[in-house]
Specification:
Strand order of the largest sheet: 3-4-2-1-5-6
Structural class: alpha/beta
Helix content: 40-55%
Largest sheet: 6 strands, mixed
Order of helices and strands: HHHHHEHEEEHEHEEEHHEEHHHEHEHHH
């Protein structure tokens, strides 16, 4: 039996895969009818039945509103019509609903679908249906009240959006519980692969579960991925050349190929393995390690063009975030003014020195600014910092913190434990130097040690809190912290900020990672 031709015979990922018999191939395809395929089948069936019922029920309710409740004017006995009169237009609406929605792709499974996203599709589709029903009624010389069609249009839209909303909620709840999910394997371990892993791990409600990744680097047994719940670990399951075997042993439903640019010569071999294993595959193109939050697809004279935006927050998002920062900082400064006055008095009585500690930090786009904090340490704390760093050479200097730091004052320990020392930073937020939520503001000497990809965290304003704080700020490695910062920049939304603020409250109350 002849093995398939491979472009790169020396490539381990392109090793010939034994051919299977037709029976084995059919069994393999049946096995790889994925969990999401079954969800699609059930979902399409449910949607078809409920759409048909909704169209019919819309006419029934529209008839009841017009003739039984006389909505739209009193109906004389001589003009009263039974619902049987509307059987023909209702039946036409049912048939047109199924046809129009099918042709418009309304019944396709979209993992990233939202109820809000369904609304325009349903309104547009059912408007077309009712327009067709009205035209046919006109040609058939159908004379009963036209208001029934208006009521049916409104009620049908509500019913169809309603049952889709219920199905979406149930579907996502099942997926979050791990029921009916697709098992995903990632090929690669570079930045693209990490982002793919993070995207899948962060959205269990979309029906994916990561089983691991494959890569040829034997020194990397696992990778850290940034999620809203913190930095988690994904295990290496083998080499790229073992993909077919791993897919079968691990019952993988889908493979995401995310190779760096220097490994793209191995792509054809991996695609051949995926085809032999009869598993779905997707390819993530390498964009040279840029921090991506979106990709614009367009064309010029038929030539496809991919536009890449970096992970900065801009446009309406920047305006919205700034407005929230201003409102939030004013409210906090006004409400906590008496408390800050009391803290200032306690610091002054506890130890000699200034109440406020001013320190230069690096903000958005590398611009320096003076960050304010309540003083928690003795007056010569900065001079003694170098001695402490030399005494602990194994520590990452960018994250230097000592839980038993002898420079702290008695009041300073309590302020740090409760994070009350950071209240003056709301003045930095009001001035626009910081944001309520964002990356930890770095010191100038820390930025000098950054790798190229670390500098991407400077694309957004630093913040008082963020994913780095709610996930154990003092227990994270520096790379883990940066990955959380990049995740935040690439996925910013008001809802994400709200979740971070809500999770910050218990983190502050418990003093989690606050040294």
């Amino acid at each position: 039996m002849i093995s398939p031709k491979v472009e790169h015979p020396d490539d381990a990922s392109a090793r010939p895969v034994p051919m299977m018999s037709r029976t084995a191939l059919v069994q393999q395809w049946r096995r790889h009818e994925t969990a999401s395929d079954r969800v699609v089948t059930v979902g399409i069936g449910v949607a078809l039945v409920l759409d048909a019922l909704s169209a019919w029920l819309a006419f029934y309710c529209g008839h009841a509103l017009r003739y039984n409740l006389a909505l739209g004017g009193r109906v004389d006995r001589v003009n009263w019509e039974p619902f049987a009169t509307f059987y023909r237009p209702a039946g036409i609406a049912v048939v047109l609903t199924l046809l129009v929605f099918s042709f418009r792709g309304t019944y396709r499974l979209r993992r990233w679908r939202t109820v809000i996203g369904d609304i325009p599709r349903v309104i547009s589709g059912f408007t077309t249906v009712m327009a067709g029903a009205v035209m046919l009624a006109f040609f058939l010389k159908f004379y009963p009240s036209r208001l029934v069609f208006l009521y049916a249009w409104l009620i049908g839209i509500v019913l169809m959006i309603g049952h889709r909303a219920v199905f979406t909620v149930i579907q996502r709840e099942l997926w979050e519980r791990g029921i009916g999910v697709d098992r995903v394997l990632v090929a690669g371990s570079g930045e693209n692969a990490r982002r793919a892993l993070a995207a899948v791990a962060n959205h269990p409600r979309y029906g994916y579960k990561v089983v691991g990744y494959v890569d040829d680097d034997p020194d990397v047994g696992y990778v850290h991925i940034a999620t809203e719940q913190g930095a988690s670990i994904c295990r290496r399951l083998g080499e790229l050349g073992d993909l077919t075997d791993i897919v079968r042993r691990r019952d993988v439903d889908e493979v995401i190929i995310a190779l760096p640019a220097e490994q793209h010569t191995r792509l054809l071999g991996l695609l051949e393995q995926c085809r032999r294993a009869t598993v779905r595959f997707r390819i993530i193109p390498d964009f040279f390690q840029l921090s991506l939050d979106d990709v614009d697809l367009s064309e010029v004279a038929g030539v496809p063009i991919i536009g890449v935006r970096d992970g900065s927050i801009r446009g309406w998002q920047a305006f919205t975030k700034r407005a929230i920062d201003i409102a939030f900082s004013i409210a906090v400064l006004v409400l906590t003014l008496p408390l800050m006055g009391l803290i200032a008095l306690m610091i002054k009585r506890d130890s000699p020195g200034r109440v406020l500690y001013r320190q230069q930090r690096i903000g958005k786009h590398g611009r320096p600014f003076e960050m304010l904090k309540f003083r928690c340490m003795v007056a010569d704390a900065d001079e003694r910092r170098a001695e402490m760093l030399d005494a602990q050479p194994m520590n990452d200097r960018r994250l230097f913190k000592d839980p038993d730091d002898p420079r702290r004052t008695r009041i300073g320990r309590k302020l740090r434990r409760t994070s009350l020392d950071e209240l003056p930073q709301f003045w930095n937020v009001l001035k626009g130097e910081m944001s309520v939520i964002g990356p930890r503001p770095p010191l100038p000497e820390e930025v000098e040690t950054y790798d190229d990809w670390h500098t991407q965290r400077l694309l957004v304003k630093p913040g008082l809190t963020g994913l780095w704080q709610i996930n154990g700020r003092s227990q994270l490695t520096f790379d883990e912290m940066v990955r959380l910062d990049l995740y935040y920049a690439e996925h910013w939304s008001p809802w994400l900020d709200t979740k971070i603020i809500l999770r910050t409250i218990p983190a502050v109350v418990q003093g989690r990672g606050a040294w």
